[in-house]
User: Fold this.
Amino acid sequence: MDDIDSAALSPGARVRDLRHARGMTQSELADAIGVSRSAVAQWESGRAGQATPHLRRVADVLGVSVDHLLGPEASGAAAVMTGDERALLALYRTAASPDRQLLLLIARRLAARDSASGGESDPQS
Assistant:
């Protein structure tokens, strides 16, 4: 999903870093989400808090989740997720709805099998 470690950054700094990582200018991001370049500059510098109505579009254009833009402080759980958990969540979020249901079914079956065996299943099998 993203190679920037941004746990300690503000949402505006995350937007700036993600935009830079994707080689986008403020004008290009602004055009893609339908706002002015100065609005993007204000979000990135923390001078304006009116990015909230546009978070979904910003996240979509930058290829991340809204939770990622808001950071771990917004959802507590993100701070304790392992890399594998984040990868699985990213795959789930990019899957089509029927595939999401299939992923959930498989995960539930694996969890039930694991608890039935006392938690000693081999993750490599």
Remarks:
- The helical segments are 11-21, 26-33, 37-45, 55-62, 66-70, 72-75, 83-94, 97-116.
- The radius of gyration is 18 Å.
- The first helix runs from residue 11 to 21.
